[in-house]
Design brief:
The complex is a heterodimer of chains A (415) and B (231).
Chain A lengths: L8 H12 L1 H39 L3 E4 L8 E2 L9 E2 L14 H9 L4 E16 L2 E10 L1 H8 L5 E4 L3 H4 L3 E5 H7 L6 E6 L4 E10 L4 H6 E5 H7 L9 E6 L5 H12 L2 E4 H4 L1 H39 L1 H9 L4 H35 L2 E3 L3 E2 L6 H27 L3 H5 L2
Parallel strand pairs in A: 5-10, 7-9
Antiparallel strand pairs in A: 1-11, 1-12, 2-3, 4-5, 4-8, 4-11, 6-9, 7-10, 8-9, 13-14
Chain B lengths: L4 E12 L5 E12 L3 E6 L5 H8 L7 E6 L2 E2 L5 H11 E4 L11 H12 L4 H14 L15 H13 L5 E5 L7 H18 L2 E5 L3 H6 L2 E6 L2 E7 L2
The chains are: A alpha+beta (415), B alpha/beta (231).
Chain lengths: 415, 231
């Protein structure tokens, strides 16, 4: 008949302490609120930057690019035969074409990989856009426009003309708006271009595109693979690159080593191709993580301080409770719960504040290549922020609570 | 009337080490029977409070043995002692010591809620009964901080009674009370001992109070001087 009811008196006491010290509770909660909100906000901003920068990269970089790497001649040929001389030469690029041999076989091979979504051959051609006496340097990508569109979302960048006309016109070209304005041409006009192999062709402008990167718009154009082969003075099987997109671009580096072994050609993932941008992004995320975690930690100190204060105010209560038969674990529960409830209120308010901040920031128009402020509403970051916050509040509650649990009631009553 | 020993102190001794080593309790041995009302008297500094803290199981640093309700409690773990205090010992402090944030009723209920022997409703009912016994039932819902010292002391006594403890210990429970309140408390104690067989051990400086109790244990310099029974 003994001890048959569980009355949760510890919870009762915690809640009473919270309700009767509203001001302190509010201050501690507010600390957590601000800490959580800033943590989430800053991390959403980093995620937004990374997403934006990736989007810019994927505008003209495939997840993986397969190509024939330049071979450098070996500087030293050592003869094992002592009677013969060793041969020393200056290292230089072995004069060989960068073409991929039997591209159809390689394309088919890559397409058969389960993680691959798009495979499209491409020919990169360095060209001059001829404008009267002046030449504008640039580059043309010889592509199958439909597949290239899947990869680089070209259609969404079109501002004039029709993307499909590239395949319809015999010598169609899609120009970046920057090139077009320098050349003073519009859709339907003819322009002449000259390749690095000194072939000049007259092309008909099928449309203009405008990407988020103005440098690209000032140099780039799309032409058909056939035109590119003509500009390179090559036959119908000539291909320099095979572009590959995969399901998860974060794993591109792993796949690229495999594809390299599979095809016998160099497979370069987008991170390797954009090292500077990627390392800048890494630096940014380390910085933001450090700053936002410190802010959260400061919020934790707020709870720690306020609980310490409560405990020294309530030291008589603790002594009485222990005298009446409350165990150390009860005392810990009372104060950890108090810390956790303060933290929970702070976290909830922090989540709301973060949603508001992210929403308002996403409405800021920056213009230029960026457009709206790059910030993403990432639930994963919200969850991570809440968990970090909860962990820190529990810790900040536990440390003072443990001290309270060790209070010796006799020493308090003697005073 | 059968005499059942409820508490036995066996050669209890204690030292304080700061500021210097000094023997505060010396070879204290006595027994208390069930239903006895014992007063503990002696000059200031004679060691009454120190002894009471040991008897209440809150202080565990002593030599000798302490037996409560037939169980040797000396050497038990803190959690076991806390459970024992919760169930079997009610303690009344000189300076009333209520939890200020709670109502009188809640203060009285807390030890019972911790024990969990009765439902919340039953506990509330019993708490009212204890408050009524001390004439405090009309103030039950007042915040405890809004009461006078004497009223707070009576609430604290009701709290000590809530789990129907075997032993009620008080360190000068009437020390701050006027004669009217002292009489109320004394009568309550006497009733508990005589009608419910609960044992009372109270430290007091009040000679009238001590004389009216069943037995006086007098202390001097850490020793028991004269265990004598009142007629
Ligand atoms: N924590 C301590 N450290 C050292 N000495 C102490 C400590 N607590 C009490 N004493 C000493 O022990 C002796 C007994 O103290 P105790 O409080 O038991 O006396 P008391 O009989 O209750 O006195 P009073 O009637 O004034 O309450 C006193 O001399 C006191 O100074
Ligand atoms: Mg004393």
């Amino acid at each position: 008949m003994r001890d048959q009811y569980k009355h949760n008196i510890d919870t009762d006491i915690s809640i009473t302490y919270i309700v009767t010290s509203k001001r302190l509770t509010l201050i501690a909660s507010l600390g957590v609120t601000i800490g959580i909100a800033i943590f989430i906000f800053m991390n959403c901003m980093t995620a937004g930057f990374t997403q934006k920068s990736n989007a810019m990269i994927f505008n003209n970089t495939p997840h993986i690019r397969v190509y024939e790497e330049d071979q450098i001649s070996k500087p030293l040929f050592k003869n094992n035969d002592t009677n013969m001389l060793n041969l020393i030469s200056n290292p230089k690029i072995v004069p060989r074409s960068n073409r991929i041999i039997d591209p159809e076989r390689i394309v088919a091979l890559l397409k058969s990989q389960p993680e691959v979504t798009i495979v499209t051959p491409q020919i990169a051609v360095n060209i001059f856009y001829n404008s009267g006496m002046s030449l504008i340097t640039g580059n043309a990508s010889g592509v199958g426009i439909m597949e290239a569109d899947q990869m680089f979302a070209i259609r969404s960048t079109m501002v004039e003309g029709k993307m499909e006309d590239l395949e319809v016109f015999p010598n169609g070209i899609l120009l970046g708006v920057g090139v077009a304005s320098k050349m003073n041409v519009k859709t339907g006009d003819n322009i002449s271009i000259t390749s690095s192999r000194n072939i000049t062709k007259v092309m008909k402008v099928a449309g203009l595109f405008k990407t988020k990167n103005s440098l690209t718009d000032k140099t780039k154009s799309y032409i058909s693979i056939h035109s590119a082969q003509q500009l390179m003075r090559e036959g119908a099987s000539y291909v320099t690159d095979i572009n590959v997109d995969v399901v998860d671009f974060n794993k591109a580096a792993d796949y690229s080593t495999r594809f390299s072994a599979l095809t016998g050609y160099k497979a370069e993932d987008w991170k390797a191709a954009n090292e500077t941008l990627v390392s800048a992004a890494n630096m940014r995320s380390v910085l933001v993580s450090a700053i936002s975690l410190s802010i959260l930690l400061v919020a934790g100190f707020g709870i720690y301080n306020i609980l310490n204060m409560t405990i020294s105010q309530k030291i008589n209560d603790i002594a009485i409770l222990k005298a009446m038969g409350f165990q150390s674990s009860d005392v810990i529960r009372i104060f950890v719960l108090q810390g956790a409830l303060i933290g929970l209120m702070g976290i909830l308010a922090g989540l709301l504040l973060a949603i508001l901040l992210v929403f308002l920031t996403s409405r800021i128009y920056l213009g230029g290549d960026i457009g709206y402020f790059p910030i993403v509403f990432d639930t994963y970051i919200f969850i991570k922020g809440s968990l970090f916050g909860l962990f820190i509040t529990l810790l900040a509650g536990y440390l003072p609570a443990r001290k309270a649990a060790n209070v010796d009631p006799v020493s308090i009553f003697r005073k | 009337m059968q005499t059942e020993i409820i508490l036995k102190a066996d050669q209890i001794g204690k030292f304080f080490y700061s500021p210097e080593k000094f023997k505060v309790l010396d070879n204290i041995s006595f027994t208390v029977n069930k239903g006895e009302f014992v007063s503990l008297v002696g000059k200031s500094g004679s060691g009454k409070s120190t002894l009471l803290y040991i008897l209440s199981t809150m202080d565990t640093e002593y030599q000798g043995g302490l037996t409560i309700d037939g169980d040797l409690v000396t050497g038990k773990k803190q959690n076991a002692l806390a459970a024992l205090r919760n169930e079997k010992i009610g303690f009344v402090f000189q300076f009333h010591y209520l939890l200020n944030e709670f109502s009188c009723l809640k203060n009285v209920m807390i030890p019972a809620l911790r024990l969990g022997r009765y439902s919340r409703k039953e506990i509330e009912y019993r708490a009212y009964e204890k408050l009524r016994m001390l004439g405090m039932h009309n103030q039950a819902l007042k915040p405890s901080a809004k009461l006078s010292g004497g009223q707070q002391q009576r609430v604290a006594i009701a709290r000590a009674l809530i789990n129907d403890p075997l032993i009620i210990m008080g360190d000068e429970p009437t020390g701050n009370l006027d004669s009217r309140n002292t009489d109320i408390v004394f009568e309550a104690f006497q009733k508990l001992a005589q009608e419910f067989g609960q044992t009372i051990i109270a430290v007091t400086h009040d000679n009238d109070f001590a004389d009216k109790s069943d037995r006086i244990i007098e202390m001097m310099d850490g020793q028991i001087v004269s265990p004598h029974f009142n007629p």
